[in-house]
Design brief:
This is AEC family transporter. This protein has helices spanning about 1-25, 30-55, 55-60, 65-85, 90-100, 105-115, 120-145, 155-170, 170-185, 190-200, 205-215, 225-250, 260-270, 280-285, 290-314. By secondary structure, it is mainly alpha-helical. The termini are close together. The model has no long low-confidence stretch (mean pLDDT about 90).
Length: about 325
């Protein structure tokens, strides 16, 4: 247990620091947005590019990991969508619920955790998670959100094209693609360039956690408490449980699964709270209060669920 606390305490202490800085007006919410843009647009893209560029493509594209993470996420989307549909929840709130349950915060929370648990693999784990999330899980959830807009008469393919185009413009996606291109070329990057990327990447972990905590200080707590609690529970318990189920089930079907540290990492990755921009995405559909409350509950609850999971897995 002391080892587990040594992993969990720095994560949530940094987030608590960010919360306190905003709560006591040392920084304001707008400052957190600026710092968050730095992490999202500079530090994490540099991290992804450097982590992928210096490794062989076969090491980065671990098919077993991708299979398990993808199928666990898809199963979560399907079950949560069915659950809220049977409850009579409307289309927009259904889409918001499945995104909250299935899209973890691999950059701001997951990477700092992996850096402490698996320091040599943290960059590769982030790249694998980010690939599944941005190619499959997030586009599917955004597609459900966009199709839920009232009065929409656009074709399915046009909506899908708009979602994909928006994702391709993100700096983190561009950083990942640049890393893949460099790895495939076999040319590598000069040492000064790699050191620059590493320097920028090193700034991402602590700053991301401070931003998460500071952002929570400005979130509204009004909303559908029952549904928000169910979304948070699905994210912290159902999603990792389904990923673990895929880890056990896929070998029976003759499909590859990750082993060793990566097997532990794929379950831990699914146990992270939902992505930090979740309330912003939900705001376009008038569901910011629901998403904000869900994010707050999941982030606070993760302090307990991650401690228990780490004690069991690590």
């Amino acid at each position: 247990m002391p080892e587990v606390l040594g992993i969990v305490f720095p994560i949530f202490a940094a987030a608590a620091l960010g919360f306190g800085l905003v709560r006591f007006a040392v920084f304001n919410t707008a400052d957190m947005h600026v710092l968050g843009r730095y992490v999202l647009n500079i530090a994490l893209p540099a991290l992804l590019c450097g982590a992928v560029a210096r490794r062989d493509m076969a090491e980065v594209l671990n098919l077993g990991y991708l299979w398990v993470f993808a199928l666990g996420g898809l199963a979560t989307i399907a079950l949560v969508y069915l659950f809220v549909w049977l409850k009579g929840v409307g289309p927009a709130r259904r889409a918001v619920a499945v995104m909250g349950a299935s899209c973890p915060n691999s950059g701001y929370v997951g990477f700092p955790v992996m850096l402490l648990v698996f320091p040599d693999l943290a960059g590769v784990i982030l790249a694998l998670n980010f690939l599944v999330e941005n190619v499959l899980l997030i586009p599917l959830c955004l597609l459900l959100m966009d199709l839920a807009r009232p009065g929409k008469d656009r074709s399915f393919l046009r909506v899908l094209g708009g979602v994909v185009l928006g994702l391709l413009k993100r700096p983190m996606v561009l950083g990942l693609l640049a890393g893949f291109a460099i790895s495939l070329s076999g040319l590598g990057l000069p040492a000064p360039v790699l050191r620059t990327l590493d320097m920028l990447a090193a700034s991402s972990s602590a700053l991301a956690l401070v931003v998460i905590g500071g952002s929570l200080a400005g979130l509204p707590v009004a909303g559908d408490k029952v549904l928000a609690s169910q979304i948070a529970l699905a994210k912290l318990v159902l999603h990792p449980a389904l990923v673990a189920g895929a880890l056990v089930t896929l070998p029976l079907l003759g499909l590859p699964v990750p082993e060793g540290a990566l097997a532990t990492a794929v379950v831990l990755s699914a146990a992270m709270p939902m992505l930090g921009i979740y309330p912003i995405l939900a705001q376009d559909h008038g569901q910011q209060a629901l998403a904000s409350l869900s994010l707050l509950l999941a982030t606070v609850g993760a302090a307990f669920t991650l401690t228990l999971l780490l004690a069991w897995l690590v």
